[in-house]
Amino acid sequence: MNYELVGEKAIFYSLGNFIFDTDYQRAQFNTEKGLLLKITFNSESYDFVPLGIEIDRNKGRILAGKLPEIFTDVQEKDYKLLVPLAAKMLITATKRQWKYLNPQKFANATESDWEEDFSNPKRSGRVPGETLDFFIICPLAKEAENEAWKSSTLEGVKEYILEQM
To answer: Where are the domains of the chain?
Structure first.
């Protein structure tokens, strides 16, 4: 994910998962790419160096790779422009994941089928209420149709999001 500089402080988003290595995660785009973040602190300041990585699943190794385009300073203006497009991408990725996990049910799913699934209070069978995200994300994704995201100056981020759809 991206990061954000707020004053003299940096906020790094979504650094929690180092390796995505289950079959359904492999069905998603760019799960073989990532980054390590080297942070150096001293009494007055800090510095960070992002290091791109790539997982070579055939050899079971992590190699140096290109830094993902998404890893950039995304300020509030561009964030607000890009959120609907990112929401649309998340829905696309979720559909791809469900088609992989349950092809009998979702391989030929219609938009009506997806709406029903996204509004099911126990859509994965785990806990009630997990559809809350989709009650927020689905309307937000529809805002991408107004194409305001095209006015973002973060071309690399837009390309990264679009290539996932």
So the answer is: 3-64, 76-163
